[in-house]
Amino acid sequence: MSTETGNTYTVDTEPAVESIEEIELNEYDTRPVAKFVVAFLIGGVFFLLPVPYQGEVTVPFDIVVSNITGTFPDAVGVYSLAIIVAGGVLTTLAMVGDGEVSGYDVSYFETSTVFWLLRVAGLVLAPVMFFKLGPGWLHTPSTGGLMWNTLVYSVGVIIPIGAIFITIFVELGGLEFVGTLARPIMRPLFKVPGRAALDSLASWVGSYSVGLYVTRNVFEAGGYHKRDVFTIATCFSTVSIGFVGVVAATLEILPLFPLVFGAYFLCVVVTGAILVRLPPISTTPEEYIAEPDPEVAFSGSPTDYVRLATSEAVGKAEAGETFAEAAKRGFVDGLKLTSLILGTILAVGLAATLLSAHTPLFDILGQPLTPLIAALGIPNAEVVAPATIVGITEMYVPVLLVTETATKAKFFVAVLAVSQLIFFSSVGPMIMDMFSDVPIRFRELVALFVMRTVILLPLIAGITHALAALGFL
């Protein structure tokens, strides 16, 4: 039973826990089984299959995105300019009109005044970045060049391409299968539905952009309440495995990649398990924005979970769209979402990177941490300390600060930079804009960044010293 209050819904009573004998399983007819299996393989291959490429091991998704942005940079630039301008214009029309322009419904683009202004700022900045107008310092590789040529281009391509394959995977049974199998871990550890494992997996192997796209779709379908979304967006919007490799390569510790990634995984799990039990996450209401569709309460053996997961997946595949319909809808939804957030990312991200590059703010903020870093036994404390703070602007900046430090300092910062998760060149404004109906606010993201950092500093220091004692560092 659920109760509707205004535009939100709450679940009145928790469903009784059922066993496999009490659940009516779907019949495994040939056609829906084939749809699920093919969709699962398509998603699995595209996002998960390791393949050698240009001397590295990566996944097809990364290869496709890299080839598009690397082979057609001018076309991607025009596309990015056009979609940011479209987002700014359509948002303005939605905010000043009645939600409809020449018969086209633009209510999708309605937002708060703050994000309207940020999208308009993005609209103004996009031509400046595209045509390289203004002073040279605006377009350096660590400021405008990073934002426009790397982050804007990547996010602009990642979301619509990723949305095609993730929609096929989700709509034809993949979400039910992964979510059911993950319930025994996700609910006790992180207090979220098992289906949240797919959002996290999409971030690990693809991009936080794809993970957030999945979260938004499930939220709009009633599969998550607001606290679920807050948890997933701020604790599981992780950087991809590939980017962890980039960080390790930049610091010339690529041979230590398995250790860096293992430490990163542990840090994300530990911080997530702690933060979901603390404000602001724990105080977020359990309200849905659509008719609630919570997971079936279930208890059974591992075999029972596999049976239920397969049944749920086949049932979803049977009722779901065709492959072509899912792909088309995913691409269109991906383009619409990109038009919403890309201008915001450009405006906020450019401000953050300029602040980091041209003011002493983060050096000043980092100075009080120097004694703490030294007390934790991390070498080059005076360099590492600012790196612990500057990651709030862009996750890659701390890495660039410690390229000339000792190996232990490099390892410490590499793991810290990718584990802090919240940064305002991209994921911060993306979360605030995509989930303004939760809402997830700027001050809460800053507080969570600080909380994550407080947890991570001693944790990563302990991991660093343990690995050094074992002779790995």
Question: What this model shows, in words?
Answer:
There is one protein chain. With 473 residues, the protein is mainly alpha-helical. The protein contains 19 helices and six strands. The longest helix is centred in the middle third of the chain and has 47 residues, at 144-190. The protein has a domain at 33-344. It starts with a strand and ends with a helix. The strands form three sheets. Strands 1-2 form a two-stranded antiparallel ribbon. A hairpin with a 2-residue loop joins strand 3 (51-53) and strand 4 (56-58). Helix content is 66%, strand content 4%. It has helices at 30-48, 60-71, 73-96, 113-130, 144-190, 196-205, 208-220, 226-235, 241-250, 257-275, 302-319, 323-358, 361-366, 370-375, 381-390, 397-401, 407-419, 427-434, 442-469, and strands at 2-5, 8-11, 51-53, 56-58, 100-101, 104-105. The model has no long low-confidence stretch (mean pLDDT 90). InterPro entries: Gate_dom. Keywords: Membrane, Transmembrane, Transmembrane helix. It holds the Pfam family Gate. This is YjiH family protein. The chain crosses the membrane at residues 36-55, 75-96, 108-131, 151-175, 229-249, 256-276, 337-357, 369-392, 412-433, 445-472.
